[in-house]
Batch of 2 targets.
Target 1
Amino acid sequence: MDHSPTQRKSRVSASAVLALLCVAVLVDRAHAATTVNVGGSSGYNYRTWASTTRVKPWDSLFFKYDPRLHNVLLVSKADFDACRTTAPWAKYSSGKDYIKFSKSGTYYLICGVARHCAAGMKVAVTVKW
């Protein structure tokens, strides 16, 4: 059975549309946000964790801790370096905190309880595509 040029063109167009849809779905999945557990299997070695963990814009960092003993402060680099807790940009204290970053950059997070930051409970997270 010989198909007319119009029928063949219609099949090619339908195939092209289907292929484009498949590519769009794959690209969307590649950019889908995920939840990243802070510390991961390295526990409280945040420097190792941060150097080996990829965080993309729209991913959520998940901090799980005892809120009677810890919190999470988002601070400037100067406050991060000095472990200064007096003027955080944001404070999280539920013990199960999800923190989402909408754009690329380096973000500085510290524990604001007692001398925890000075003892190493701080992490610089680089967010990038």
Target 2
Amino acid sequence: MSGADMQAVCSGAMMKAIEREVRKAETLGEDSDVTGGGLQITLDDFKKSLVGVKPSISEEELLHFKRLRVKFEK
């Protein structure tokens, strides 16, 4: 995965957490303070987000970059 892919996973996890808190607030009523001062992003949020993100770099491209790194590390 690229850095952009990781950013997409993290953003998606944050959105999953926000959606969960909004559902809680809708259930409890608009006067409730569901987050209690902070949003908790869980491992489950990351797992759900990861399902929707496809790597933007193919295995072939990744192998190419690994070869370049080895070549220029010397």
